[in-house]
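Lecture 7 notes. Example A: sequence first, then its structure tokens.
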Amino acid sequence: MIEWLAENVSVFKMQHNAHHEFKLSVEQHLLHRKRIGEALFFLNSKDRETCVARDELWELRIILSDGAVMDIAGSSLDTCVGAARTAVEGERIPHLAA
């Protein structure tokens, strides 16, 4: 998983429960990120609901060699990397939702 990221993206940053640093719920954190123009995208709405219900959030920011930035969130690091891999390999993610 980490090897794939290192081989396929220029820069990556992962965080787990960064919202706890500011004493925010997942829902508050997601609203804040959207407000500042850094919306996090989930592979599907069920995964978003899981994160909110558990108050647990993985975040993955990737920057591609062309400068494109993707901020992906999910209930696990595997989910985030899977969504990134799908996007990077040129497949469309029709249900990627904020």
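Example B, a different protein, same format:
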Amino acid sequence: MFEVEIEHAFRITGRGYVIVGEVLARETVLRNGDFLRIRENEEQTVQVKAIEMVNFGSRTPTFNKIGLFVGLSEEESKALVGKHLYKNEEE
């Protein structure tokens, strides 16, 4: 399983929105094009368009934070803050 808790959402000019979170589980590989399910509403999915390695708020690198470029609107992206997104191994 791969699981991330979303902490921030921000816009990259000319590209769209990135959601940033802390990786909670990384037993499976996450790839561009994969779909993540929202734990609170498993019917809803979010497609990962690109994976961004983010490093903000600290002068030392941390590898437990990940940014996911998603094709969502500002409202949809910001609504994910505080939610858990996951991918099972068989998906």
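Note on Example B: The two ends are 9 Å apart (CA to CA). The chain is about 5% helix and 55% strand.
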